[in-house]
Description:
CATH superfamily of the largest domain: P-loop containing nucleotide triphosphate hydrolases
CATH topology of the largest domain: Rossmann fold
Structural class: alpha/beta
CATH class of the largest domain: Alpha Beta
Oligomer: single chain
Helix content: 40-55%
Largest sheet: 6 strands, mixed
Number of strands: 18
Number of helices: 26
Strand order of the largest sheet: 8-9-12-7-13-18
Amino acid sequence: MARAALLIDERRQIMANFPFKEFTIPTDIIGSADLFITESDGDATTLNNNSFPSIGFPNNLMKKENYKILIGGCAKSKRIFIINSKSDSRRILEIGNRLSNDGIQVFILSIYDKTTNQFKSVTDYFKTYSAADFKSLIKSAPSFISFLIKHLPENFPAATPEIKDSILPLILKAESSLSKFYIDQLRKQVKISVKVVEDLIAEVRRLQDSADGEDEASNEKVETDPEILETASALAHSPSLLKDRIDTINRAGVAGERINIAILFCSLDSRLLLDQGIPGQNAIGCKISGHQGAGKSYTLMMVLSIYPKDLFIFFSGASEKALYYKGGGIVHKCLVFAEAFQLSNDRKDSEFLYSLRTLLSEGKLIRSIAERDETTKKFTARDVVLHGPVSFITTTIESNLEAQLDDRLFTIHPDESVNQTKRIITNRAKQKAGITAKLDDKNIRTWKQFHRLLQPATVIIPYAELIAEHLNRQPKLPISARRAFNKALNIIQAITVTYQFQRERDSSGALIATIPDYFMALQIIGEVFRENMGSPPKASTERLDYLTSQGHMSTKDLATHFGVSRAAISSWAKRQAQEGLIEWVDQSGNSFPNDAALTTAKKSGKAHIKVDPTVKNPWTNIGLPMPNDFQEFSQDWEPGGIEYEKFNLHLVPGTLPGLVTGTNIESEGDESKGDIDFLGITEEVIPDPGDPYLGITEEVIPEPGEPYYANLLI
């Protein structure tokens, strides 16, 4: 494998030094209304001889300096036709994107012989057909955007990265009438609703704004305002620092999502954690997984808005070796990946995935490349070393990413409950009414300055053994306890590094984590740690308990009782049935004789679910200890105690009515608080492909006469 990579690099080096001819465009064809780009000089000559102004642009000319000449030569023409005579999709995409992003109208003209089912060269085409036939082909040539849309996979999750990275940015540049035409094409191709497209467009615009900001990152001025410097220093010494930071994002317009906000900040700050013998072991990776339009990107973007742009690297896509050539290095930065389809479980392993996993696990990358010695003219190997540590954040509509990467990540989900939807609607109304407080420039600059004050550090946890002893008292521990325990410690360390100006150091200079650091970490991940020990999630436990008390009931009635969508309950029920915790029964509580009877009952709305009373979990109730389990003055850490209230992060929606977040809505029956997990064990629903929120037909069968999702499908 390494030998093959070396040979490829040698070939590239040889090709780079090959004396190609200089690329020029005849001046007499510049400014032609229609201009054609062919795959060979011979084809260009054929077209020019038939009065079709053409440029020969073979693959060996596809170099940066030649693209500048090509774009300049095409800019004065109304339409550019890229000849597709070899079905070379890479070539079409590269040339099409280069020209289209420069505002040039591009069309794809395929020379395809339907009689032989083969592509053919322009020269071969004119041996059989006339110039008049060629003009007919021109009339049917699709635009580059239409070409991209037509070749999208019909599966929406699979199509999402291409839509966001390539298609929507071009649509946004088009005239309004053309934009509507392309959006209609896009909806029909991947079967999504107008609402889903609008959400995608809003996300692309946010990504573009973020990318523009990244370009300006190196130009961010060093803060000199004395007031901001003083306020940032005060923040660094505030005991309520972590809560204040979460409050700030709520005030910026994010409704609830306090656990998720806390995890995102922990991930960002963990980039500063130095290793303790294993490089990279302390950096936190985080995956935000949920429905399209559920608010994944919005929460992330608001968190990043108060973080200095040069302390994270934003990717909307990446080539296999992109990390090796990132200017300025990546040490102590957070890698933020806009959409994780490139990392999905459906795709094969790749060099980028391997690089990312290695960075997160080991803290550095080493890659050998071949270089030509200018003196000896021979190729020699040189190591390119990429130093970490780095932390990692990504968003995705996929439930699972590539298995080895997914195992290294926290997984968090946006709150998809009905009450959260109400909070968001309230927030949006307040924003449009102009009564929502916004972060002013000084506030943003103050938080950015605070984050610049933070420095890399080693963190020790003097009570780590006490936590381990508490867990080891259990007669049995699941294997998942190993990774879950380490991730819990990483969260503690990330909080300590955030509080570094308030923490003591040992003789070696390492920060010493305190009990308050543990208590704040416990609030963020304590419940989920228990889940990783095999206990059902809190919301799941409440649903199972209620279902047990009722004997059996329909998913519709269960969804109504808990105030969540039927899609959420249906997906939850599917997982519980797979795990053997519940079973499908008829309206009398009896089991179905066969699958056909169950299917019929589901279609007619007569299928119920009930808890299987025979299933017992040996890992139930194994969790992290409370501070008062091993701390002197334990009464201070009881609810209502001095320390308990001092470091209470108030992560549950509805407990901070003073914030302008819409969280003052009653949260009774609202189980979903924005959930996290260590190993893919989740509290709230992750939509399956086919979920109606994705604009595609879903597996849930509505009650008879219930137009449940009809309004979402256009």
